[in-house]
């Protein structure tokens, strides 16, 4: 899952981004509304965590622009105000969910994951294919009933492959969904991660390389 965090309180923004990355999400961070509009114009995000009171371009206007573009991106709006009227206004603008500050990080993570599931065809909370079971909420992976310990990027790649339901996923798509924009697209990070993921999942291999196209399960 790829997430954009838009928050002018830099310490909070960076803390949220760090926490979501530990949950195997690819996270980009910006600190004002103008930068947010630039990012959503060039990158495909599953979820935007959007502070409402932003400098340069107000969060309301960022949300309206996402809606106008007809993007599948879901918006979780943050605000320091917990008034019901503010929450209603944010939802009427086009936000998909609303979370007042201060918030528990576990609730933020749960809401981001719930919104991420709504950006595509509905899928079960636990993904299963080829003897592999992946639970995004618990961050657990099992193969044939045996738990497999994965690093965050390995978990993210496996989740993307399972969500494709047997379709081929290119290296570029994996890079876009599992890594943030600071990753050099010319590195071999995808190939190396897939290699270590194959090894940890064990025999027989379940990740198939499709020459010239990508990978599938």
Salient structural properties:
single chain, 217 residues, alpha/beta, 5-stranded parallel beta sheet, 4-stranded antiparallel beta sheet, 8 helices, 11 strands, transcription cis-regulatory region binding, phosphoprotein
Describe the structure.
The chain is an alpha/beta fold and 217 residues long. Helix content is 41%, strand content 20%. It is built from eight helices and eleven strands. The chain has helices at 10-22, 33-42, 59-68, 84-93, 105-117, 152-163, 171-178, 189-201, and strands spanning 2-6, 26-30, 47-51, 74-79, 97-100, 127-129, 132-135, 140-143, 146-147, 208-210, 214-216. The strands form three sheets. A five-stranded parallel beta sheet has the order 2-1-3-4-5, sandwiched between helices. β6 and β7 (132-135) form a beta hairpin. α2 (33-42) runs parallel beside α3 and α6 (152-163) packs across α8 (189-201). The longest helix is centred in the N-terminal third of the chain and has 13 residues, at 10-22. The chain starts with a strand and ends with a strand. The mean pLDDT is 89.
